[in-house]
Design a protein that fits this description.
The chain is of the alpha+beta class. A four-stranded mixed sheet has the order 1-2-3-4, sandwiched between helices. Strand 2 and strand 3 form a beta hairpin.
């Protein structure tokens, strides 16, 4: 199972859309308060778009397909399971990630403040 998740993560990194690539450019190398973020990181049985492990924060970037009813339900169940593992999940649309990327930085800072790390 672990090797399947790692293979899936690698595939997802290679096929990332514009919004995910821009977010990664912004977050890589600890660019926000020195907090390192991983891209396409396994959490439980899922591969999440971005994860800040020290904060146990998942950042999901959702394209238009995430507006479909069946995908909304799947996302909800997935998020519930990830949160049950002790992670916090924040979601941004592709549009928000591209037009207001500072909101993602603020989500990271807010979580770090909540945990007393900033």
């Amino acid at each position: 199972m672990h090797s399947e998740l790692m293979s899936r993560a690698r595939d997802l990194r290679q096929s990332a859309g514009l919004a995910e690539r821009r977010v990664w450019e912004r977050l890589r190398g600890g660019a926000v308060e020195g907090l390192r973020v991983r891209r396409q990181h396994p959490v439980g049985r899922y591969v999440v778009d971005f994860a800040c492990v020290p904060l146990r924060l998942v950042i999901e970037i959702d394209g238009g397909v995430h507006e479909r009813d069946d995908v909304v339900l799947r996302d909800h169940l997935r998020q519930t399971e990830i949160e049950a593992l002790g992670w916090t999940v924040v979601r941004f649309t592709n549009e928000a990630a591209l037009r207001e990327p500072w909101r993602i930085d603020e989500a990271i800072r807010d979580r770090a403040r909540l945990l007393g790390l900033l």
